[in-house]
Amino acid sequence: MNIIITTRCHKFCDFCFMGDLRNNAMADMTFENFKKCIVELQLNNIWTVLLLGGEPTLHPQIIDFIEYAFSQGMRTALITNLLCSDEFIDFANQNPLMFQPIMVNTDIPGNYKKGHHEWFIKNLSRIDWKPKPSEKNPEKIEPHLNWFGRITLGLDMKEDMYDYLFDYKQYGLDTLGISLDMTIPRKHLINNTKLGEVIIKFVQRFKDGGITLLQDGCGMPLCIFTNEHRKILTTHLRHANCGCSFAIDVLPDLDVIPCMLLKHIRTRFENGLEKITDEFSKLSKNIDAQECTDCPHFYKTCAGFCLKGRV
């Protein structure tokens, strides 16, 4: 379950699928609503709270939320563009046990607004990620922040266009989550094995460069990969995924949606997570298959991508 604590963001990425929710009047989640989310997670024996936005660090009570979750025995997994205050970086460095992990959305340097990439690099360089021996017991390692990078691959991607990420290894980047731009119309992706070939070359490039890749976000359509591609994915990519289990996103006003791609489907948080999960799980049985009618993978592994706009 993802808790969207704010719809505000200082970036307007082409691949963002929040659409009209971004920077809208819904804005920030109240502390009382956040507490309700924590109670529901505890009732379902979930002990990691996943915070995102918008940009969650823009919420004026982000530190209070993380501290409260920790006081309830929970750690925070945070998805952020890292365009945040010095205060927040200081807080994270001083309280690494509260986080698990920090997931940093990155973008091509030229896509940032003026001054924003420099801001991003400054914050990235300040993350206290290096393992250090304890002063009291040198055989033990002091707690330190755990983070990994995330990128969204577009239709126009080239295998070398993300090489700037290798520069981030000096700041502790050793794992990178990748996903496809889900705002791309399906017709440009279905059976697009040329794109699949570029993705494979990209995956091989980063594995050879010493960075572990995992599939993050929505599953990639299986039909863009050949049988040989799929073999490479299983050996080079952690958590290779072409399916979907519905993220379940809780909006600031406590409306609940299956995921951002299906934000037209709403229910209320008061229904309880178990009932909501059961309700959303039935969506895959009501799919308009359209051009995927003859796809041998559709109902087994590709339903995640192919559900987009079809229920």
List keywords for this structure.
311 residues; alpha/beta; TIM Barrel; 28% helix
Number of domains: 1
Low-confidence stretches: none
Question: What Rg, in angstroms, do the CA atoms define?
Answer: 20 Å
- Superfamily at the CATH H level? Aldolase class I
At CATH level 2, the architecture is Alpha-Beta Barrel
Short description:
It contains eight helices and eleven strands.
Plain-language structure description:
The protein contains eight helices and eleven strands. It has 311 residues and is of the alpha/beta class. It has one domain: Aldolase class I (TIM Barrel), CATH 3.20.20.70. The chain has an eleven-stranded mixed β-sheet. Helix 4 links the parallel strand 4 and strand 5. Helix 5 packs parallel to helix 6. The longest helix has 16 residues. The two termini are 20 Å apart.
List the helices and strands and how they pair.
Elements: E1 2-4, H1 31-43, E2 48-52, H2 62-71, E3 75-80, H3 86-94, E4 99-105, H4 116-126, E5 147-153, E6 175-180, H5 193-208, E7 212-215, H6 227-236, E8 237-238, E9 249-250, E10 255-257, E11 267-268, H7 273-281, H8 298-306
Helix pairs in contact: 5-6
